Amino acid sequence: MSKLAKDSAAFKSVLKRQDYTSWHSQPPALSEASTPGSPPAPAESSSQPTPKKKRPKTNVVYSQPADTGTGMNINTQLVYAVNHLKGTQNPMRLQDIAIVTNIPLDTDHTLLEKFKAHDRIIWDPKTDLYSYKHEFNFRNKAALLTEIQRQTRKGGGISVRALKESWKEAPAAIEELEKEGEVLVTRTIKDGQLRMVFWNEIKPTEEIGGMQVEKEFNDLWHSLKVPNDVDLLRQLASEGLQVTNAEAPVPKAPAGKKKGKRGGAPRQRQVRITNTHMRGEIDLSRDYVAPAKQK
Question: Which pTM does this prediction carry?
Answer without folding.
Answer: 0.44
